[in-house]
Amino acid sequence: MEWVALSLLAAAVVTVTALVATGRLEVAGLAEPTTTRAPLELPQTVRSSDVDVLSMGSTLYGYAPAEVDKALDSRRDRLADQERQLAGRDGHVHPDA
């Protein structure tokens, strides 16, 4: 009896594969990503400390958190360097820098 069920399952898999391969059966794509977090918002004048408070949602097929965190850390460090350079010129950071 088990071989009958396995045979029917195998036949169904082969049939569906053939239909998809020939274009007679279309498979819907992934749904639009959903998240429970608000859209990413940054202040008008971004400072390196703003990067630390960023929080991004992820989805089932979303981003790789470790890679994004590494990129954000790099950007924060670069902004901090630029802020130090600007502060060294005249003692303060220009608000539009």
What does this entry show, briefly?
Helices cover 54% and strands 0% of the residues.
Name the average pLDDT. Answer: 77
In total, how many beta strands?
Answer: 0
Instruction: Kindly estimate the percentage of residues that lie in beta strands according to DSSP.
Output: under 5%
Number of domains: 1
Helix content: 40-55%
| Radius of gyration using CA atoms only | 26 Å
Span of the ends, CA to CA: 75 Å
The string of secondary-structure elements, in order, is HHH
Shape: rod-shaped
Instruction: Describe the main β-sheet briefly.
Output: none
Low-confidence stretches are: none
Which structural class should the secondary elements be placed in? mainly alpha
Helical region count? 3
What do you see in this structure?
- The protein has one domain (2-26, 43-90).
- The protein has 97 residues and is mostly helical.
- The chain is rod-shaped and about 85 Å long.
- The protein has helices at residues 2-22, 48-52, 65-90.
Topology:
Elements (H helix, E strand, L loop, with lengths): L1 H21 L25 H5 L12 H26 L7
From the structure above, extract its key features.
mainly alpha, 97 residues
